[in-house]
Write a sequence for this structure.
């Protein structure tokens, strides 16, 4: 029983950053803007959250700063792809490189380190197996992360804004004819995706009480894999996040036994995504206007 | 992004490939030059401005920092040789991305292809008896690198052609898969204990440039730059002087028109991504045969994404790619030179700025040109 609970708790803690990023990514992709940027948004969010917490001593100010950092990166991506009509893939890659570069530069500038920040105030989940549930609640970003997926699903399927997002991502010309400002909806969706993914990054730095260089470590791409594997549906993407996190947890817990090499577990999300795209079990079809003007 | 001409051609609606080519030829040369050259200049200008801000943020003078950067790269033999060394790998990944773009495909997997090429070169080298002449060993290892990179590139080509799986996603995913596989191979079988690299190759390898001229002493620059430049020339000839290259570009410009003209789009995609992967794989010889003489995990890190930058700034043209690779290599080596005044991490940020400015200015310049054509 205890092992099962421990497994569940660890899975949830690994899944939270994926859930935030995937929730954000689904919004942007459903509005027609490709989300190769999640990795950069997360890294930017992790860094600005650490910075906010460092200067204020309050992790909640850190969360706020993380959101602001994500919004800033999101707006850069939005302006370049929507205003300047830059290629979304290229702009996304640029955002990721920019996030790596700027966080490294300011890490060196502010803290004189090329690897990590000093310890800052943050949230921490208790690690002792007796207090698993309270431990999870101790870090408020964990319950928020679990609720974010249903929240985005509600936003997407039950609100006028969500309807506009879907319209703009499937058929921008028709949406435009009906008086929806395609640009404004896309700006909002990309900005929101920046803020949400940044929350995932803030979770990382506030959970570990410090920022380390490149700490998003490919999680943005795992979230992207979850989006595709979940066929651009927030709930299914969320389930994919939980599944990928469970696989990771299994690998960590089996590490002592060397049953499966860790590298093969790491491959799972990527292999499944390719399988989903090839369409062995129901083909993954992206939003019709994804990547188009 | 597929090709500078693509959007324009769509406006004029050519129905066949030959008509398309006529339209291209009839365009004013001036417009084509402006369209090719202006965006990189804009990107350079924007990155200098952002660089100024980052330098001023630490209270240094931009002029002094940029001078130091030039002195540390093109200003002395060692720095220049290091630029050559770093540009060699970037030319390969840049050419790889460029040939994909010419066919209308985005290869984001150059890093995995490069790593696979490097490991294959090392494995072939290790399989040869110690003391094998470089005249035999180098071509064999090079072929190994080309084949391994090409094999990794073939997969997303086939996935796209047979199942319509988009290559942007599959190449990203394959990157992680290939790197994890290589990491597993190294950690379980191939490495020297306590390290992340294989045994040292005892067969002949590529000479350092410092063997020819002592001024380059201490630099990693080596003979692979010659092989890589040959590859750039051959690619240019292939793209612009052969039937296969013509088909490849036609598919990149107008897949439907190409299909109507009897070109198999799917097969062309597979061919383009296989060539692309092979070119990225070729880059592996720079580190493995020219520098360390072993494969080491992580040697390819970042070279794939920079290859995208190189191909974009080089406008998917082999000569442009070589020049752009020299530019990005200068930035990267220059970072080391300025580290005393400004954190070298500045150049990491500038790389992102260059790509972003490039991506934003290409469509902008195209629109400006279209507008000025409308007025004429």
């Amino acid at each position: 029983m205890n092992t099962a609970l421990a497994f569940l708790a660890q899975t949830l803690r690994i899944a939270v950053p994926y859930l935030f990023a995937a929730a954000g990514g689904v919004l942007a992709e459903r509005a027609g803007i490709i989300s190769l940027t999640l990795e950069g948004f997360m890294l930017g969010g992790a860094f600005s959250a650490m910075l906010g917490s460092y200067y204020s001593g309050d992790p909640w100010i850190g969360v706020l700063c993380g959101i602001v950092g994500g919004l800033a990166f999101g707006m850069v991506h939005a302006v370049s792809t929507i205003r300047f009509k830059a290629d979304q893939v290229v702009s996304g890659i640029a955002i990721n490189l920019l996030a790596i570069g700027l966080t490294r530069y300011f890490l060196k500038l502010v803290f004189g380190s090329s690897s990590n920040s000093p310890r800052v105030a943050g949230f921490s989940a208790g690690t002792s197996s007796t207090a698993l549930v309270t431990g999870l609640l101790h870090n408020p970003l964990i319950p928020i992360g679990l609720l974010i997926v249903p929240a985005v699903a509600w936003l997407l399927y039950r609100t006028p804004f969500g309807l506009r997002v879907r319209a703009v991502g499937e058929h921008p010309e028709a949406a435009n004819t009906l008086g929806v400002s395609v640009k404004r909806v896309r700006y909002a969706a990309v900005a929101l995706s920046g803020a949400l993914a940044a929350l995932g990054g803030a979770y990382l730095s506030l959970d570990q009480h410090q920022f380390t260089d490149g700490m998003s470590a490919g999680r943005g791409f795992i979230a992207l894999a979850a989006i595709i594997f979940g066929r651009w549906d927030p709930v299914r993407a969320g389930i994919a996040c939980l599944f990928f996190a469970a696989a990771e947890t299994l690998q960590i817990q089996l590490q002592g036994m060397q049953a499966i090499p860790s590298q093969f577990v790491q491959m799972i999300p990527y292999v499944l995504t390719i399988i989903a795209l090839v369409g062995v079990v129901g083909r993954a079809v992206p939003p019709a206007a994804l990547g188009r003007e | 992004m597929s090709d500078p001409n693509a959007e324009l051609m769509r406006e004029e609606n050519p129905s066949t490939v030959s008509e398309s080519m006529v339209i291209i030829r009839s365009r004013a040369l001036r417009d084509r030059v402006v369209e090719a050259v202006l965006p990189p200049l804009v990107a350079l200008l924007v990155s200098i401005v952002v660089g100024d801000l980052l330098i001023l943020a630490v209270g240094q003078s931009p002029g002094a920092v940029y001078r130091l950067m030039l002195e540390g790269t093109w200003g002395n033999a060692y720095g220049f040789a290091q630029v050559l060394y770093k540009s060699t790998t970037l030319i390969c990944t840049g050419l790889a991305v460029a040939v994909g773009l010419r066919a209308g495909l985005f290869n984001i997997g150059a890093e995995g292809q490069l790593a696979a090429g490097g490991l294959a070169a090392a494995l072939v080298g290790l399989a040869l008896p110690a003391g094998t002449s470089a005249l035999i060993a180098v071509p064999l290892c090079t072929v190994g690198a080309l084949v391994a990179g090409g094999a990794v590139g073939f997969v997303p080509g086939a996935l796209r052609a047979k199942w319509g799986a988009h290559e942007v996603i599959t190449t990203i995913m394959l990157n992680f898969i290939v790197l994890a596989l290589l990491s597993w191979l190294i950690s379980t079988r191939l490495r020297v204990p306590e390290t992340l690299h294989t045994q040292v190759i005892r067969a002949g390898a590529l000479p350092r440039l410092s063997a020819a001229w002592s001024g380059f002493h201490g630099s990693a620059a080596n003979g692979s730059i010659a092989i890589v430049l040959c590859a750039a020339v051959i690619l240019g000839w292939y793209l612009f002087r052969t039937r296969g290259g013509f088909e490849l570009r036609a598919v990149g410009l107008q897949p439907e028109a190409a299909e109507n003209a009897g070109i198999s789009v799917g097969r062309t995609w597979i061919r383009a991504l296989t060539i692309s992967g092979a070119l990225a794989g070729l880059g592996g010889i720079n580190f493995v045969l020219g520098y360390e003489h072993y494969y080491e995990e992580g040697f390819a890190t970042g070279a794939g994404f920079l290859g995208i930058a190189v191909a974009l700034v080089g406008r998917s043209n082999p000569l442009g790619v070589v020049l752009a690779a020299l530019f990005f290599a200068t930035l990267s080596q220059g970072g080391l030179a300025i580290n005393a005044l400004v954190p070298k991490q500045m150049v990491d940020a500038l790389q992102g700025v260059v790509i972003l400015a490039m991506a934003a200015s290409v469509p902008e310049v195209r629109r400006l040109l279209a507008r000025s054509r409308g007025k004429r």
